Each structure stands twice: as C-alpha cells, then as structure tokens.
Amino acid sequence: MFFSYNLFFFFFFFFFWYLFMWVWFNFFFWVVIFFLYFLFYVFSFFFFDWVSCFFMSFVFLISGCVLFYSLGYMFGDMNLIRFYFLVFMLIFSMVLFILMPDLICLLLGWDGLGLVSYCLVIYYQNFSSLISGMVTLLMNRVGDVYFYFMVWVFFFNWVSFQYIFYSDFFNDDFFIFIYLILFASFTKSAQFPFCFWLPVAMSAPTPVFSLVHFFPFVTSGLNLIFRFNYFIFFCDTYFLMFISLLTMTLSGFSACVENDLKKIDAFYTLSQLGFMFFVLSMGSVFLCFIHLLIHAIFNSLLFLCSGFFIHSFIGSQDIRFMGSLVKQCPYVSVMFFVSLICLCGFPFFSGFYSKDFILELSFIYSFNFFFFFFFFFCIGLTYIYKFRLIYYLFFSDSFSFPYVNFSMKLYMNISLFLLNFSCIFGGSFLFWLFEDDYFFILSSDFSILPLFFLFFYFILCFLYSFGSLLLFESFFFFIFLVVYDFWVIFFRVFFCRFFSFCYCFNGFVDSGWFEYLIFDGLLGFMSWLGLVCCKLTLNIFKLYFFFFFFFFFFFFF
Length: 557
Fold this sequence. Notes:
Layout: H1 2-44, H2 50-73, H3 80-99, H4 103-121, H5 127-158, H6 175-188, H7 197-200, H8 206-212, H9 220-227, H10 237-257, H11 261-281, H12 285-312, H13 325-328, H14 330-343, H15 350-364, H16 369-395, H17 410-431, H18 444-466, H19 470-484, H20 486-538, H21 540-556
Helix pairs in contact: 2-3, 2-8, 2-12, 2-17, 3-4, 4-5, 5-6, 6-9, 8-12, 10-11, 10-16, 10-19, 11-12, 11-16, 12-14, 12-15, 12-17, 14-16, 14-17, 15-17, 16-18, 19-20
C-alpha cells in the first residue's frame, strides 16, 4: 500500500513536471520567435538616411563622452545603477525617435524622451527637484497632446502611419497638420510661450544636464521639423521668425542678469534654439541641421566644464563667488574658454563655419528691418553674457570658498579632451562634406554693418558692467523675470488685475446701486406679484363667476 502511494505520487509529480517543462519550453520558444520577428520587423523598417546617420553618430559621440565623464563625476553615488539605466533609456528613446519612419514608433520615442527626462530631473529626491520635474513633465505633456492630434490627423487623411511614403502629397491645404507639428516642436524645444520650463529643470545631475537640456531632448522638436521639412514652405515663416526672435530676446536678457551658472547655460541653450528656429524660418533646413550638430559638441563641453566647476565648489552655482579659476584649474578653464569662443563664432573654430554662413545668408534674405535688427541684436546679447561669464569666472578676484576640490579623474580628462578636439576641428570636417562651394558677395553697406553692431554692443556692455543707468539694469531684470517666471507674471499682471477689477465692480456695482435697483427692486416686484397671486387664489370663486358672466355677455349679446 505504501509502495502504491509512493508510485502514485511519483507519477503525479513526474506528469506535472513534464507538463510544466513543456509549457515553459513552448512559451520560451514562442517568446523568442516573437522577439526575433519583432526585432526583424523593427530593423527592417529603420530609416537610415544621411540625416539619421549624422544625428545618431553625434548622439553616440556625446552620450559616450557623458557616460565616460560620469564615471568620475558620479563616483560614490548610491544610485549609480539607476542613473546609468535612465541614461541608456534616454539614448534608446532617442534612437527610436530618430530612426523610425512610423508615427506610432515615433510616438514611443517621443513619450520615452519625456518620461525618462522627468525621471532624470527628479534624480535627486528632494522637494525642489520634484517641483522642477512636475513643471517639466506637465509642460511637455502639452507637446504630447499636439503630437497625438498630429498622428490622428495624419491617420484620418491617409489611413497609414508611414509618413515618409506620403511626403509628395502634402500641400498648403493641410495647415492644421502643419501647425500641430510647429506647436509640438515649440513645446519640446522650449520656444515662447513654452520656454519657462527649461531654466526650471535644473535639478538633474550635471552630466545628464548636457543630454536632457540640449542633446537629444530639446532638439527632438527640431528633429521633428527636419523630418517634415517640406512643411516649412507651406507655413507662415513670419510667425516662426517672430516666435524665434522673441525667444532669443527673452533668453538673452535673462542670461545677462542671472548669477546661477547652470541657469546661464540653460538660457544660452534657449537662445540658440531660437536661433535655429530663425534659420528654419529662412528655409535653410540643411544649414540649421549642420549648425545643430556643431553646436551640440561645444554645448556639451560647456555643460561638462560647468559641472566640474560646480563639483569643485561643493555644489555652489553662484558665479559671483567663483573667480581666478584660470589659476586654480587651467586645464578645464582652457576647455571652457574654447567652448565659449566656439559659441561666439571665433574664426576657424567649429562655430565659425555655421554662424558665418547663417549671418551672410541673413544679409541677402528678404525680410523687413524689424526682424533684421532684432536678429543681430539678439546675437549681440550672446556676446554680452558670455564675456560677463568669462569676467566672473577667470578675471574676477571674488574667490571666497575656503574649501574647494579641483582634483579631476582620468575619465573626466579624456571626455573633455575628445569634446575639445571636436570643438576645434568638427566644423571644418562637416563643411568639407559639402559638394558645392557657396560664396556671398556683399556690398559695402553690409560690410560696415558688423562694425556698427560691434560699437553698439561695446557701449551696451560698458553701461551694463558699470551700472551707470538704473533703468537699463531694471529693464534687463524685468526681461529676466518675464522668461523665468512667465506664467507667474502672466497671472499676476492679467488675472490679478482682472480680479481686482472684479472686486471693485462688486463693491461699487454688485453690492451698491446695482443691488439696490435690480436685486432689491426685483425682490420687491416678485413679492408684490406673489401677493397678487395669493389674493387671486383666495378669491378664485368670485373670479370664476366674474369671467363666466363676462364671456357669456360678450358672446351672446
């Protein structure tokens, strides 16, 4: 009996073990088959053109340098695995967004960028990081709504999500689709009035700051326009010019009064994004793309050097307490200075090739004097706040920290050297790929114009540096408040004024003569009418007899 029970349990256990292994093997087999099929399906629809290949090469170059830099910068962090996982997810989302010709897969990359960027902004788990992350997430959800509507409009018209096969059928009748693309790119690339979230999202670690705040996150809006670049010729270019110039002006003025090193870099990024949208409004999509790639290199170098300064000063970001850094850390100071002169378009550095080309193109483009003047004025603001930054960091004697640590690990040195090499030679390498040579022959008036702007900016810098005009400084600070606390000022200026008017209206009208004449009078009239109805109801039999005799004599006599 005992032997039969043991045999029964043995066969029972063997049967279920065999069933479990069979199900597990088949499940695993079908999962592998499905994964391979999905992988083959996805890779078969990757869209490898020269735009995506160039973009991906720069994404991998900058991401590799940032990850290598993070080995030294994030050394000793308790959540380092989570940090690297989020960075890899950010890169993977960007790969999906760049290489996918399908709008659904493009949507996965678009949402992935927003979600992972939110997780990176709240990486340091404190209240300010949470507020910054929520502002970033909610503002970018507005762009997601525009993107969802764009996908719906596209599918409603062509019953497909493969947008690259229908590019020849677009015309100016699809203006709704055009402006959905524009507003989606405005929110992601922080153009006015959606520009205030970029300086707020400062809580991410500094290596990630170079990824989240310029490449690839905020450039995803520009990349969306690159994919639909044939729409530029159908939209209102003056509207795009106005938005880009407004963004450049607000960010330039804000950077001139800001003392936080990270926020200065964020305002500079905002200004350059507006600059690229202005180039797009002139119809130069290819030139804007080349400037984006060149700018991404020295922008990342600028952020990483700024992160080293912040790390050395034990987390302090105020440039007024940093000074004489060229004596303390000459290697990083030289790298930082190279990135700044690349930004200013110093001849034969990488920024010179694209900026000089764009400025010469603006001379021959036919737009009015208002746009022309403000375009060069915004470019001059770039020089003002960058030379202000150079003065505070390198030539000022305001070094006031007793405990600093300027030691740098080998990983950080190698990353900065690679980016610095790309800053010096990257522009020439890219422009050597041009098949045709372009020459601009300018008149003498246009040749003298840069000297006029140079003299004007010199006077502007003099007035700003010495503070001889209080109104001038106040105007700078007002513009800074407009871009940094845009919605706060909007509610204070418009809604608070409106509510103040409502309070006065309530005191003088609702609670005054209006109440006496209308509400009290109406209440008295309704009371009188109620009394009349009551009297009529109490005398109802008399009324019945009265109306009976009245109609009887009226009809029969």
